[in-house]
Each structure stands twice: as C-alpha cells, then as structure tokens.
Design brief:
InterPro entries: DcaP, Porin_dom_sf. The chain has two helices and 22 strands. By secondary structure, the chain is mainly β. It has two domains: 61 residues; 298 residues, Porin, CATH 2.40.160. The protein has a 20-stranded antiparallel β-sheet that branches. The protein has a two-stranded antiparallel sheet with strand order 16-17. α1 runs antiparallel to α2. The two termini are 73 Å apart.
C-alpha cells in the first residue's frame, strides 16, 4: 500500500467522523454510547494509519536523491590573468594568454643633402665639408637633395603571459627591419627577446632588453626612428633584477650585461677588444602616474684590449633623467649623461668611441657628455606635437684622427594626427649638425612624413 492510498483512507475516516457527530442529538443514550465506541475505534485507526504513513515517508525519504540539475561548465579562469587585455587570447587547457601584434610603418623622407644614412636621422654620419666620414652609406658631402621611402620601422611583437604558483611569467619578443648588413631594404633585427618572472620579491629578467642605465620614459616622441642623438640607448643581453616598489613610488634595479665595447683606432692596428668582465648597471627610480618619473642610472665597465699592447681601463657613467607631467596634455623629457668609456651605450653610437690609445701607448677611456630635452603637447585627443633638442660630445685625444667624432646636435619638431585608434599620420622637420675633431662640420635638414598602424 502506498502513501497516497493510506492518505485517502485517513481522509475518508475523518469524513465519517464528521458526518456522524451531528446525529447524536436525536438518538437514544444507548445509541450514543455505541456511537462513541465506534468513534473511538475510528480515531485509533486514524492514529495508526498516520503513524504508518510517517514511517513510510521516513524510509523512502532516506533513499530519495534530488533530481540531477544541469550546470553550465565553468569558464576557465587564469589566476592573475583576469584582465586579459586587448588582443590577448587564452591557450586552451593552460593558464597562459598570448598576443601577436603587427605594426606596419612607412616613412617618406626628403633630405637637403647627403644624410649619410637614409633610413634614420643619424647625424654622426652626416658627411662634413672636405672630409669624407668613414662608414657613410652614400659617399661624401654634397648639396643635392635626397629622397627615400622605407618600411624598416615596421615592428612585429609577440608576448606570452602565464602564472606558476604565485608568480607571473612573461616572455616578450620584438623585431624591426633596420639591419642593413645584408644590403636589403628590410633587414631583420631583434630589439627585445627576454623572459621575466614577477614575484613578491621583485622581477627577474634574462635576455635582451633595456638595461637599468636607460630610462625609456625620457625618449622624446620623435617620428624619426632613431630619436635624439644624446639619449642613453642600452639594450644588451643581460640578467636583471628589479626590486618591488617601496616608499612612495621608489624602486631600484641591477643588471650584469654583455659589454660589447668599442676601440677607436686611427690605423686599425691597435689590437682587438676583449670583453673580460660584464658591464654592471643599476638605477634608483621614482614614478607617479600623475606626476611622471625620475631616474638616476649608473654603469661600471672594464674596457680591455689585446694586441701589440695588452691593457685595460675602467669605464663608468651616470645618467639623470626627469620626466614631469603637467596635467593630461603636457609633458617634458630631460636627460643629462656624463662618463668615460660609455659611448657604446649612447644612441649616436654609429662610430667607435669608448676608448683609444694615447701618445704614450696607454689605453684611455674617452670622456663623453650629452643632454636631451623634449616637450610634448596634446592639442586634442586626435592631435599632438613634440619638439626635441639634444647635444652629445666626446673629448678627443691627440691620437684620434681629424675626422673623429666630436660633437653632434639634433633638433626636431612634429605634428601627429591620430586618424583612427592606433593609426597615426605625422609630419616632422629635423635639423642636424655633425662636427668632427678638426672643426669641420656638416649640416642636414630633413622633412619626414610617417604613416603607422598597430593592431593593438
């Protein structure tokens, strides 16, 4: 007998009780007594039936399982990767997101005379009057106009971000097409290739990227791909450590890196550079999203030569950069650098200038100083301009030839229109003056129009 039948019987008995009670007023006392006995029997029966129903419910309730409920599969969530970012995709079955970014670029260039190097405004290679500078791509000094169209500034970038426990790991790759050694218009060149682990103890980086001696914030936003001549430009292979932020926006970084030094030789017979120790660089940095950044960077290196004379000398340098912001539309970039034997870490490093032998046959680290200033103004969300000036200089010694690098000045001003998100069209005017040890100089004026697009 199931629970439904039992409940129906109980209900029927209850109805009988209800119907019988009103008739008692019209019956005899003997009949009343009989009726009471019958009612009592029925009540006992109802109680027994209800008890049996309860026992059955308890027994069946213990074996009852809830009906299965369809649940939508949970979305994969990568710990620490919740902000996926533009262009990133998750690798199925992993905790990794990846992105490939393509940034095609075209520069249309017109020079007032032979620039020495067509694709970039490398003022150190501008030929001087009556003095052909070695390393020039296009010959000597002349006053005729030159034009050039290039896509060498196009970039390919790939990065992958994953997590391992509480640590975030980034692998980053970037290349452009400025390797001209093979004579092609587009020559493959790696700019960055590194792995970085971010932990609660700081960031650990290995590979080719920016050294602590360089501050990427102090680059004026020129359209010229090279940028200001005197800017610290240091991208060797390295092992780098960045501390966590402390205080109010402070951090420090340390690195050992491939030295890649250069020897100036007037004859070419002074020996070969020997990299006996890695360069050691460090910085202390302050950064504020609202106010900008400031950085003091330093480098120490051992410069050595093997050849007719084996010798070595200490190289060192300091660079102070200030990059204040003034509201949302204005920013300034300032950088001053001084040192000995550091020219290979300077943007104008198109010629040898770290060290040279003096008249006594002693190896000397050449003294260098440089200054960069830039100003950027945003006219509106779609229009902006940047003006820049830089000067860089090497203190020459008597054994250097008359055409040795001495002083370079670089100036630029531009106007950029953001036609649509990530698509810019700009025009820039540049002036450069190259002065060599003899005092001879060469000048060049360039007008450049740039079209650039980035997927992300």
């Amino acid at each position: 007998m199931n629970k439904t039948s039992l409940r129906n019987i109980s209900a029927s008995l209850a109805l009988l009780l209800t119907a019988a009670l009103p008739s008692t007023a019209q019956t005899s006392s003997s009949e009343v007594e009989q009726l009471r006995a019958s009612v009592k029997g029925l009540q006992e029966m109802v109680i027994k039936q209800n008890a049996q129903i309860s026992r059955l419910e308890q027994q069946q309730g213990g074996n009852t399982r809830p009906a299965p409920v369809a649940v939508a599969p949970a979305e994969p969530v990568a710990i620490g990767l919740h902000d996926i970012g533009d262009g990133y995709i998750f690798v199925p079955g992993t905790n990794t997101k990846v992105r490939l970014n393509l940034s095609p670029r075209l520069d249309v260039i017109a020079d007032s005379r032979n620039p020495g190097l067509n694709s970039r405004f490398a003022v150190a290679l501008v030929p001087v009057k009556n003095n052909n500078v070695p390393g020039s791509e296009v010959g000597g000094y002349d006053s005729s106009n030159h034009t050039y169209v290039t896509g060498r500034g196009s970039n390919i970038t790939f990065d992958a971000i994953t997590v391992a426990g509480d640590n975030e790991i980034t692998v980053f790759y970037n290349n452009d097409f400025y390797d001209t050694s093979n004579g092609r218009d587009l020559g493959y060149r790696i700019n960055h290739l590194y792995a970085r682990m971010k932990t609660r103890f700081g960031k650990f980086t290995l590979g080719k990227t920016v050294s602590p001696f360089e501050n990427v914030d102090s680059w004026p936003a020129t359209l010229d791909y090279s940028g200001a001549s005197a800017k610290v430009f240091s991208r060797p292979s390295m092992l780098r450590y960045d501390t966590p932020t402390f205080g109010r926006g402070f951090s420090t970084a340390f690195a050992i890196s491939n030295p890649d030094a250069s020897l100036y030789s007037a004859t070419g017979n002074d020996g070969s550079v020997r990299d006996r120790l890695p360069d050691v660089s460090a910085n202390i940095r302050w950064e504020s999203e609202k106010c900008g950044s400031a950085q003091l960077g330093g480098i120490v290196r051992k410069l050595a030569v093997d050849g007719p004379v084996d010798d070595d000398v200490l190289g060192w340098g300091l660079s102070l950069s200030l990059c204040p912001k003034f509201g949302e539309n204005d920013s300034i970039q300032l950088e001053g650098t001084y040192g000995e034997g550091i020219f290979s870490h300077i943007n104008d490093f198109f010629r040898d200038g770290d060290m040279a032998f003096n008249s006594k046959g002693e190896l000397k680290a050449l003294t260098y100083w440089g200054f960069v200033a830039g100003y950027t103004h945003r006219w509106s969300p779609k229009y902006r301009s940047t003006a820049s000036y830089s000067v860089s200089s090497i203190k020459n010694i008597s054994t250097q030839a008359e055409d040795a690098y001495h002083r370079v000045q670089y100036a630029s001003v531009n106007f950029v229109w953001t036609v649509m998100p990530r698509f810019d069209v700009g025009i820039e005017a540049l002036y450069g003056k190259n002065k060599v040890k003899s005092g001879s100089s060469g000048e060049n004026v360039r007008v450049q129009m740039t079209f650039s697009y980035s997927l992300f």
